[in-house]
Task: inverse folding
């Protein structure tokens, strides 16, 4: 069982919600295992909800209300927590955004776009506009601000999550921005990776067959909870916690990094590409 963690109920809505859940569960004399028994969620999931690290799902809220006799209290609060957690993120990504704050290791594979944790504001804005050009300007700015807030984990006091990212070379060679901003974006990647002792690899375009060819993948491990995988498509995402499937994804990720260029060569490639974009700016002047 994960060690008990004290909850600051004033931190945010989910923390308050989690603290209330723990208080009512203990007042009822139930353990985490007893409270989760009969639900579709495991003990670790309920523990993360109590610590304010995961959003309670509606099915679990109904189950807990039944177990604790709380007259629909947790079911009614589900919508409040959902809104607090989304904060500019797509609903399917809300759980991922909240959990990365508590991860001790994050590993990403980015075959088409620079990951959100490494994006500059200008790059994030271009991604949002390109993906959903019909969004009103205020929604675009809300989503951009949410992505930039996520990167605040690089400014937090230690321990920060260990970070490993693999980029496809096309992300560097086919710029989403004009040369000047693209150079700044690549310099930003190098700065973040080096400042956090992260590991970055580039999968060369010459590799035509490799693991995880079908899309973006992210792995998160935690000090007191099982690892998770997240995959994302165009307008949807899936959080995976089924252990055998998580292990399959992790094996594929290990093979992918074995296929990619070394961290030293990869960083040198990104720095050289940034210099090329900077030279292009000078030639235009």
Result:
């Amino acid at each position: 069982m994960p060690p008990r963690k004290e909850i600051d109920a004033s931190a945010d809505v989910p923390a308050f919600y989690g603290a209330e859940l723990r208080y009512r569960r203990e007042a009822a004399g139930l353990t985490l295992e007893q409270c989760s028994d009969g639900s579709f969620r495991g003990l670790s999931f309920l523990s993360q909800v109590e610590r304010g690290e995961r959003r309670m799902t509606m099915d679990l809220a109904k189950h807990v209300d039944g177990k604790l006799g709380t007259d629909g209290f947790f079911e009614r609060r589900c919508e409040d927590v959902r809104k607090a957690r989304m904060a500019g993120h797509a609903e399917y990504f809300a759980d991922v955004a909240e959990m990365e704050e508590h991860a001790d290791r994050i590993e990403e594979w980015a075959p088409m776009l620079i990951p959100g944790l490494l994006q500059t504001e200008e790059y994030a804005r271009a991604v949002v506009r390109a993906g959903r050009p019909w969004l009103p300007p205020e929604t675009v700015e809300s989503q951009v601000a949410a992505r930039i807030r996520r990167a605040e984990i690089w400014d937090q006091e230690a321990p920060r999550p260990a970070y490993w990212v693999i980029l496809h070379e096309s992300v560097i060679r086919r710029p989403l921005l004009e040369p000047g901003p693209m150079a700044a974006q690549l310099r930003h990647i190098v700065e973040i990776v080096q400042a956090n002792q992260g590991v970055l690899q580039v999968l060369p375009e010459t590799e035509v067959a490799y693991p995880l060819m079908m899309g973006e993948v992210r792995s998160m491990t935690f000090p007191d909870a099982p690892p998770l995988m997240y995959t994302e498509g165009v307008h949807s995402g899936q959080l995976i916690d089924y252990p055998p499937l998580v292990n399959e994804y992790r094996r594929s990720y290990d093979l992918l990094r074995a296929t990619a260029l070394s961290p030293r060569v990869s960083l040198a490639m990104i720095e050289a590409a940034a210099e090329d974009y900077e030279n292009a700016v000078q030639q235009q002047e």
